[in-house]
Target: ABC-2 type transporter transmembrane domain-containing protein
Amino acid sequence: MFRVMASDVGNVFYSVFRMPWLWSEEAISNGFCVSILEAIVDTWVSQYLGVWLTVAIETIYISVQALIYCLLLYSMIGFEWKLGKFLLFYYLFLMCFIYFTFFGMMVVAMTPNHHIASVFVLFFISLWNLFAGFLIPRPLIPIWWRWYYWASHVAWTIYGLVASQVGDKDVEIEIPGFGNAALRMVLKQRFGYNYDFIPAVVAAHVVWVLIFFFVFACGIKFFNFQRR
Model:
């Protein structure tokens, strides 16, 4: 098993099919748990400590959490130990944890209680996972639904994780039933991942975090549900 994981083919399919489940379980738990916790504490934390301090505390905690998680996961998968690749790996995981956490905070700020917030969280997470690209690769998604792939922040994270780790490799791999093909071309044609698109992926994560943060801040300011 470890020999397969260490090979280029093993890394590709592990990255595409298994790694998204690993980070999604952790990130989704952040968003789901914070939606309940935030419902309890945001009425006084955001009032007396302020929105900025609340976000700062969450960000510091998530940064440490993501670092520990990435060190363990990166070494266990067997990815190439290069500073640039690891920093991209850490950045994408960090931003993923942050936007899921901010999403949970945002939903609570926009809903009357944590019961309704939990329903919204589960609904959107299921929808995002469906169009994230690891259940159905982007080239196989019907053209009239493909726009939602780009509207899913989860898809951007998976894109960055796969493309940054193995998207720059030109080694030949053998695909049963298709013969030999360059790894870069397999990722581009079969899964729609392009290594040159990584800068846009990095910028998109900042945009998603800012969207969730500002909606959360507006919800805290303008939606004051006194019965929480």
Summary: The radius of gyration is 19 Å. Strands lie at 172-175, 179-182.
